[in-house]
Amino acid sequence: MRNKIYSERRRKLHTFLKNVIKNSFLNGWINNNQTLADDAITDPLTGLYNQFGINSYLKELHPQIGINYAIVLLNVDNYKDIQTEYGIKAAEAALVSTSNIISNNLRETDLIGRYGEHEFILILSDITLEYANNVARRIAANVQGKSLKVKTQSILLQASCGISVSEQDAYSDAILQQADLALFAAKSNGINQIRNHSTIAS
């Protein structure tokens, strides 16, 4: 993987995800092959977990009393513009650059994946809404401050975020849906916006 899983928790999580794959409907194809198991949960461009790997983890992410987690969805707002004007290679470079920025601004206990064509998902463990907002702002600011060199041009990346924090008895699919609604609200207000579900729901 491009972004290595360094912590013991992440090593255990990676092993868990591979075991989920091996015991799933793909088992007949994978046949306990480690490389295929890695490929099944890894995005080939960024080296992050892909949507299948993240969804496998989310299904096993149960509510815990007194311990909240946050889901942050980050969208590269000008991905399509970069692709149209400069081509797919430049757009892919924007995604790789964004994935590296996110990875360098998370704790070892957090998880990151590519969750759509130009969307990333962050799962932040044991966290408050205030801290999740601060993390999202810091990462978004770092992405927005990144100048991507394409031939003779410099392109500033644009990013919006949607945030939701778990509550007691709330399951991960509901938290994910709330983060998605917050991201939709952010993108509806233009570029480089951040919204959290608690503010759009009130």
Written description of the protein model:
Helix 8 links the parallel strand 6 (159-165) and strand 7 (194-196). The chain is α+β, with helices and mostly antiparallel strands. It has helices at residues 8-22, 27-30, 34-41, 51-59, 79-86, 88-103, 129-144, 172-188, 197-201; strands spanning 70-76, 111-116, 119-124, 147-150, 153-156, 159-165, 194-196. It has a five-stranded mixed β-sheet with strand order 2-3-1-6-7, sandwiched between helices. Residues 1-6 have low confidence and may be disordered. The protein is globular, with a radius of gyration of 17 Å. It has nine helices and seven strands, in the order H-H-H-H-E-H-H-E-E-H-E-E-E-H-E-H.
| Category by helix and strand content | alpha+beta
Kindly report the average pLDDT value. 84
Q: What is the distance, rounded to the nearest whole angstrom, between the alpha carbons of the first and last residues?
A: 41 Å
Biggest beta-sheet profile = 5 strands, mixed
Order of helices and strands: HHHHEHHEEHEEEHEH
| Unreliable sequence segments | 1-6
The neighbouring-strand order within the major sheet is 2-3-1-6-7
Number of helix segments? 9
Shape annotation: globular
| Beta-strand percentage range | 15-25%
Radius of gyration: 17 Å
Map the helices and strands.
Blueprint: H1 8-22, H2 27-30, H3 34-41, H4 51-59, E1 70-76, H5 79-86, H6 88-103, E2 111-116, E3 119-124, H7 129-144, E4 147-150, E5 153-156, E6 159-165, H8 172-188, E7 194-196, H9 197-201
Parallel strand pairs: 6-7
Antiparallel strand pairs: 1-3, 1-6, 2-3, 4-5
Helix pairs in contact: 1-3, 5-6
